[in-house]
User: Fold Universal stress protein from Halalkalicoccus tibetensis.
Amino acid sequence: MYDTILLPTDGSDNAELASDRAIAVADTFGATLHVLYVVERTRDDPETKGIEEKVSEELNRGREVVEGVEKRAANGEVETTTTVEPGVPRSTIADYAEEHGIDLIVIGSTGADDPTDKLLGTVSKFVVNEAPADVLTVRPDESLSGPD
Assistant:
């Protein structure tokens, strides 16, 4: 049913929950798990100082996040492919899914940029509507966010 699963992650708490779900689904179906971290492109603005350093830090963070998921997946003997690349998260995720023949995308319903959105974050919403694959959204763990 699902041979290739994509887990877009930003390292947020909800993305970590999604990674657990993606690993479990990949293990169940014997699927390859693609782990994608998108480093958001910033405007090329001469007024912005230290942008290269920030991008470098974010690339390093992305590598740490995908390597962490890869290690957890290896414990369950799930084959993984990891990618860290610059781009606009929502369109990069949809493009990656199309280019790699992804069957299922497992994504946190909210991410690091919008933890207060109780339904779907902007990236998740775009992916649900535009990606060329089935999408499983993982709701945040209410115990992590505290009382309303």
Summary: The chain has one domain: 4-42+50-143. The CA atoms of residues 77 and 115 lie 31 Å apart. The helical segments are 13-29, 51-75, 89-99, 122-130, 142-145. The two ends are 39 Å apart (CA to CA).
